[in-house]
Design goal:
By secondary structure, the chain is mostly beta strands. Strands 1, 2, 3, 4, 5 and 6 form a 6-stranded antiparallel sheet that branches. Strands 7, 8, 9, 10, 11 and 12 form a 6-stranded antiparallel sheet that branches. It is elongated. 38% of the residues are buried.
């Protein structure tokens, strides 16, 4: 997004949708609302006078219906026409939900000393994971991706330990928590003694629509790489898949292409391995 802050969305207690952003020059503001991420049917629009920062409110229960997902485009226009418009074009447009902001589909993929926490939300924002042994307020990890679906890797964890955690989507300008939920996960006691699959690259993978990227796992036995092992990749969500044979370093790799923005989960498995590995992949807008 080509803005110095936002765009961000918040549902206020008086049933108003607040869309806010900031730019590095004075401009006229406009928000267009549509019924689907590619534009589709135009629903409503509002404007605001020249400023560097804009906050535009839409009421729920009027043109916008309650408990409904809509999609928006922000335009920040230089009235002198010297600078190009700032906008979140091209589609798909980010969504907002005219109801309670919430997080769901939380998933923890754990290893001996690491974990990848992924989730989906009905509101865009930066992602954050707070975690710790006694409480979730001991450590934190975050991203600055203003999206609904996040996956954040945690490292340096203790083996065989149970961690409390809290995931949240954060306002892209003021950092307030927009939606959050809590949970627990337990790291593995030790690496499996038999043949098992691990990820040689940092988790999770982050790709962009239309990008062609690699997705890899490594086959190991008692800490050593195992070549010539068939690994099958199959998408749990979305469409991706294929087979690969591990090379001399034990690494099996497929090529994949991000098409639909959101959270994609790919499961790697092998008849020779004692585990299945779920890999969260975030396809950015």
């Amino acid at each position: 997004m080509p803005f110095t802050g936002g765009p961000s969305v918040r549902v206020s207690p008086n049933n108003k949708i607040e869309i806010r952003w900031t730019a590095n020059f004075v401009g006229e503001g406009r928000v267009d609302i549509f019924d689907n991420p590619n534009g589709g049917v135009f629903i409503d629009a509002k404007t605001s006078p020249e400023a560097t920062g804009h906050t535009i409110d839409f009421s729920v229960g009027g043109v916008l219906q309650a408990d409904t997902t809509y999609f928006f485009r922000v335009i920040h226009k230089d009235p002198t026409n010297v600078r190009p418009d700032l906008t979140n074009d091209p589609a798909p447009y980010p969504p907002f939900f005219t109801g309670a902001q919430a997080i769901g589909d939380v998933f923890a993929d754990v290893d001996v000393d690491s974990a990848a926490i992924s989730w989906m939300a009905n509101v865009i924002g930066f992602g954050r994971v707070d975690y710790g042994l006694a409480s979730p307020d001991e450590h934190s990890a975050s991203d600055v991706d203003n999206i609904t679906d996040h996956a954040i890797a945690l490292s340096g964890l203790l083996p065989g330990a149970t961690y409390q955690f809290r995931v949240s989507n954060r306002h892209a300008i003021d950092g307030d928590s927009l939606a959050e939920t809590t949970g627990v996960f337990t790291t593995l006691d030790s690496a499996p003694s038999g043949t098992h699959l691990t990820q040689p690259l940092a988790r999770p993978r982050v790709i962009h629509p239309e990008d062609v990227a690699t997705l890899s796992v490594r086959v190991r036995h008692k800490g050593k790489p195992v070549p010539n092992v068939l690994v099958h990749f199959q998408a749990i969500t979305g469409t991706a898949g294929g087979d690969a044979i591990s090379d001399a370093t034990g690494k099996a790799t497929i090529w994949m292409q991000g098409v639909t923005p959101g959270l994609l989960r790919v499961e790697a498995s092998s008849p020779d391995a004692g585990n299945r590995l779920v890999i969260p992949v975030v396809v950015h807008q």
